[in-house]
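Memo to structure team: turn this sequence into structure tokens by end of day. - J.P.
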Amino acid sequence: MKKLKLIFIIGIFSALPVCFSQAVLGAETSNSYDYRVLNPRLNSYSLASASGEFTVTQDDLNQGVLEFTGRLNTLDRIDKLLISEDGGITWRELNLNQNISYSFVPLPDKLCQLVLKIKTVDIQEVELKVFPNINGIIYRNIDYTKLVADTIKKIAEAYESRNLSIFNEYVSRDYLGNKTLLLEGLRFDFDMFMDISLTIYINRIVKIGNLYSTEITWDKIQVPRKTGQQQNTSGNTTIVLAMEDGRMKIKNLRGNLIWATLSVEIAQASGLSQSVVDQIRVAYNERNPVQPGAGKTEVSGGVTATNVQSGNLTLTCGTGYSQGYKFSNKQTITESATMPFTADFMQDHLLGTLLYAKSGSDGIYSFGACSLDSVAEAPASGYASSATAVQGYTYAIKTSDNNYALIHISSLGATPVPFSSSFSYKYRSDGSRSFK
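Reply from structure team:
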């Protein structure tokens, strides 16, 4: 097994949750007084959407301390106000003020539960849990940048070694894409591929409350069992991690499929387009180890893509205009005689002797006289902004959506205008250059 490489591009950006509406939190009282804590905050941020144990790190401390602020709805008949950091075991008296501010130094790995006690002038006591929707606040004196990296490394190593049991330990029980379906998707991967190797680049980590949104770029090498040939893919994925049971676990995945690569359900949960989801569904049903959910497939591994679209088209040139074609939406576009234009390619409107690629950028390559089916792969380089149009020639096109197409001139029109030319084509929507 090839050793996993994990590379940082940008560091961690830490912030407690923002943009939450003000909360009115309180507890039932044991007497007729309705005491409530209005808008309770930790270091000026609301914890209204937090749940379970709320974890803070050194980056969250303000000169080594945490500060709770809030406001009592009333001071009516209050004699004393006390606060506890340990859920009511020990108490400290606060100044009697409707606006409350209390700073404390959290102890590492010790759960802190803030509780207010109100003693009334008629000798009654009311206790209010400051943040009733969480179990408590816990301080972890850990470098979370390193912890995120270590967690992703362990998850990737479990995937490389096809160890489903270890991978399962790093998936949250509240995984938003359905934990059972994710694990089923992994089993299908392990059945379809062998010799899996990952290189992961961590670009950015954003801490939002108890969640760590980690943006990664990845390269994967694997071998489809069907062909025994090496397949190279790459992509961009956001992994959302959360602390659970003392370790970070996957809460959600967005973007290209690095794991469970042929799972329709995980593709949908990851926000992939319906066309890609449909391609994954076909590949899954056919047990075809292509990778439409990846960002790009640089080397196909000897498998035939299910996402190669083919067809025929006719383009017409007239006085001052020329029709072009956009492969992503199968749209014929009438372009003016001047640049720029929006199609992936078009024919010269004057003589019909040139083909232009996407607004004159380097995006067309001529194979010369050959059939469309004889071309196995679009080239990686050597593209130009235009090429001579010759009937019977085949060309590679770099499209405006960073994919590849092949076109073959079946018939070539020429002056006088208007004239039409016919083309056959193949188009791949997953960034791969392979047309096998």
